Amino acid sequence: MATLSAPLRSSQPAVARPRRGARLAPYGFLAPFFVLFAAFGLFPLLYTAYVSLHRVELQTSERMDWLGFQNYTRLFEDPFFWNALGNTFTIGLLSTVPQLLLALGLAHLLNYRLRGRTFFRVAMLMPYATSVAAATLVFAQLFGRDYGLINWALSTVGLSPVDWQANTWASQFGVSLIVTWRWTGYNALIYLAGMQSIPQELYESAAVDGASRWQQFRHITVPGLRPTIVFTVVVSTIGATQLFGEPLLYEGNSGGGISHQYQTLGLYMYEQGWTFFHLGRAAAVAWVMFLLIVVLALVNAAIAARRNRTDR
Amino acid sequence: MTPVKRSSVKRRSPLQGGPLAYGVLIAATLVFVFPFYWTLVAASRSNSELSAATPALTPGPNLFHNIGEALQQAAIGTALVNSLVVAAAVTAGVVLSSTLAGFAFAKLRFRGRGLLLAITVGTMMIPPQLGVIPLFMVIVKLDLQNKLPSVILPALVSAFGVFFMRQFLVQALPDELIEAGRMDGASSLRIFWSIVLPVARPGMAVLGMLTFMATWNDFFWPIVALSSQNPTVQVALKSLGQGYVPDQSIVMAGTLVGTLPVLVVFALLGRQIVGGIMQGAVKG
To answer: Smallest Cβ distance to B241: which of A136, A228, A242?
Structure first.
């Protein structure tokens, strides 16, 4: 503690030199947040690891029997776990990549001088204001095999209807489309905010040098947005590893389709815990997901650091 | 933490949008808005019209009948009241606790400040979904299952909220104001009440809107903690989606009613919410 506080004390600014009685005041301001945060945020997160080493059943959740790593070995022997892991990756790619590319393009257009730009911005954010459940119910209706509007539209232009539920790729595309619809506008606004902090003179001098709009976008906008892009990639990959509501309500079952063709890790965890009642096993899934996020964050950081080095 | 002045958001772009830009943006807007229109169409038709060979593409006459059915069959009425209570309580708790802690992190110096801030920011990215199992065991122990406090208590604080208010106050609150308050011999609480709160209000408003929407739409924890007997809107929608009510037009009517409150908030405050998200992006 002494070593930690030493540099802090030396940098103490004049503003907050507290009187004796007020020395404890900062902790008072922090207490409401940290007490609840420790109880409902940090503790459950860490305790998940402990629960994952026990047999805990949903109906008797106060009883814990030590199992060691048995929940994990059972998990790794379960083909549906690996299936869910694979689906999480493919659905993650199918939703994150188009979502961020579309958002980048839309942000570029929104950055033009436009009539009604507030209208466009608000319209683009409306899907973000919609809940996962509501959006999924509507899209599930649109994607209906027999009476869905999308298959009707396909058949009116002479294409054959698609089984958006039973077909693996079609169902994963359907789930991904819901994610893309909900988050593209949000990310476009984040990119737009980043674009507006790029100095205007860069574009002006590029235009004088005869750079086309595409070249300006490629060589000024994208490099200027790099920190924002890294931020959105991190946030949306974390979101993708957690995907749950969309696949749950796509057909309304926790198996993620008749042959688990679009079951994600989040859904697999829910199925273990609340369909099969194995809370201990579900905790093991949660901890695997946590490690996955840590790995993804490290990979992201490494890529960002490497790109920075090659640029300079 | 790049200091971006509000005016920079309004500065003029030299690029004038051409017909192509308008064309693409209008097409994108139609794609974003169409599902809302379709919800209205499906919610105002009958089930047989929805499964006709040529589906109806315009709203029909059954809207109020279907909404009535949804209110009755899926407890949407109870769900609306519950969601309102939960979202209001959570919003109040998050805004208050975040402003208090955000102020301490932004303007006060104390032992352990760096470490505590690092913990807050570091856990911001960890999805709360990963803690649901111990949380579930706790609320079973406290006998809170299927009661509203089970979804309110864990949501009363937010690491994002603390960070958001800290970033806001670092820029918005001049050190001199606090210094002047101290000179006058005001206590810390008094300084918070009469100096910090008035300055923090715009940030609190944005945080409040974002928290309200996020709480209204929260899904995983509520479906674990509550059941269809005492649901929030999202829990009721889950029952609808799991074939609790087989009639598609009633499912869509329930979806419409459950989404409407957020859309009303959005219609009234859309511009501020857009501003809040863009501000948060630049600061974060």
So the answer is: A136
Residue A55 corresponds to which tokens in the numbers above?
């047999």
CATH number of the domain at A265, please. Answer: 1.10.3720.10
Q: Could you read off the pLDDT of A184-221 as tens digits, one per residue? A: 999 999 999 999 989 988 888 888 998 888 888 889 99
Q: CB-hemisphere CA count at 13 Å for B8?
A: 16
Residue A175 Cα distances to A295, B34, B48, angstroms: 25, 17, 26
What number is the ipTM of this complex? Answer: 0.90
- Comparing CA positions, the residue from B135, B184, B110 lying closest to residue A29 is B110
Chain A closest-CA separation from residue B217 CA (Å): 5
In a domain, A163, yes or no: yes
**What's the full length of chain B, in residues?**
284
pLDDT in tens, B8-37: 444 455 567 889 999 999 999 999 999 999
Structural domain contains residue A241: yes
Q: Domain count of chain A?
A: 1
- Minimal Cα–Cα distance from A171 to chain B, Å? 17
CA distance A309 to chain B (A): 22
Domains and CATH numbers, chain B: 20-283 (1.10.3720.10)
What are residue A2's phi and psi, to 5 degrees? -65, -45
What's at A58, amino acid-wise?
Answer: L
| Token representation of residue A210 | 């005869």
Q: Is residue A176 part of a domain?
A: yes
d(CA A272, CA A266): 10
Query: How many residue contacts between A and B have a Cβ separation below 8 Å?
Result: 332
Q: Are B8 and A134 inside 8 Å of each other by CB?
A: no
Question: What pLDDT digit, counting tens, does each position of B182-239 carry?
Answer: 899 888 889 999 999 999 999 999 999 999 999 999 999 999 999 989 999 999 999 9
In chain A, residues 122-141 whose CB comes closer than 8 Å to chain B: 122-127, 129-141
Distances from the Cα of B188 to the Cα of A297, B191, B220, angstroms: 39, 5, 39
Please give the Cα distance from A132 to A135 (Å, whole number): 5
Task: Give the range of the structural domain holding residue A131, as residue numbers without chain letter.
Answer: 78-311
Helix (H, G, I), strand (E, B) or coil at A256: coil
Give the CA distances from residue A123 to residues A180, A218, A293, in Å, rounded to whole numbers and listed in that order: 15, 27, 32
In a domain, A304, yes or no: yes
CA separation for the pair A275, A80 (Å, rounded)? 15
Of residues B17, B213, B277, nearest to A109 (C-beta): B17
| Cα angle value A69/A299/A221 (rounded, 5°) | 150
Question: How many degrees, rounded to 5, is the angle at CA A128 between CA A43 and CA A139?
Answer: 105
